[in-house]
Write a structure and sequence with these properties.
4 strands; 50% helix; 10% strand; elongated
């Protein structure tokens, strides 16, 4: 019934659940951990299905943006100045994504989180583009 990969996945799932229960005193039911997809408003849905499961015995869904404490910063002085001072970058904008809260171990969780961080960043850049386009077409 179980192959080696699914048995390993089940064992790792049980260990993660035990760790969560011991560290947070919150009971997580087995059904909650069987979630295969999680959606985040306008950022889209993220799945544990192929290709995210291929050769990955530990497969996670992205954590919430609030728990990762993601900050999108329009300008951090030293890094921004270094980039903007390069020749040809006079009209550039520097956007820094601070996702330290989501990049912590385990590695599999950080991999899952960067999918959401990327979608959030793309969403912001798209909104900036649309806002700029609308402003330009009004004049």
């Amino acid at each position: 019934m179980f192959n080696k990969t699914s048995a390993t996945l089940m064992l790792q799932t049980i260990m993660v659940l035990m760790e969560k229960q011991n560290s947070t005193d919150v009971t997580v039911s087995f059904n909650e951990d069987m979630e295969l997809e999680r959606c985040y408003e306008s950022y889209g849905c993220f799945s544990k299905a192929y290709p995210w499961t291929e050769n990955r015995p530990d497969n996670y869904l992205p954590e919430t943006p609030q728990s990762m404490r993601i900050r999108l910063i329009a300008r951090i002085q030293n890094m921004a100045d270094a980039l903007l001072n390069l020749e040809g970058n006079e009209a550039a904008t520097v956007l820094i994504v601070d996702w330290r809260g989501g990049s912590q171990p385990p590695y599999g969780q950080a991999v899952a989180n960067i999918r959401l961080v990327g979608a959030m960043t793309a969403h912001l850049v798209h909104n900036i583009y649309v806002s700029s386009f609308i402003t330009l077409t009004r004049f």
